[in-house]
């Protein structure tokens, strides 16, 4: 489980400086991260390690990550902001 200090650090890392990413990541960290299963929290941390350009393409649905873990996390984030 992630400590509050870990969550503060991850929230800081979520600030990418690209508006399109910031409006997805920061609210996700503040409102949804704590409720994720540990495996999905780990996937989010893995996603944060990716390059901004890749993140942008995935989260704007212009490309799909080849890594199934990253693809799952992208879908979780997008489903949160684009409910059916």
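Sequence proposed for the structure above (84 residues):
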């Amino acid at each position: 489980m992630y400590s509050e200090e870990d969550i503060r650090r991850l929230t800081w890392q979520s600030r990418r400086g690209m508006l399109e990413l910031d409006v997805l990541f920061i609210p996700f960290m503040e409102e949804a991260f704590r409720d994720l299963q540990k495996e999905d929290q780990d996937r989010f941390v893995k996603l944060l390690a990716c390059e901004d350009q890749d993140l942008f393409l995935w989260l704007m649905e212009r490309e799909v990550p080849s890594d199934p873990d990253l693809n799952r996390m992208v879908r979780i984030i997008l489903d949160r902001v684009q409910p059916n």
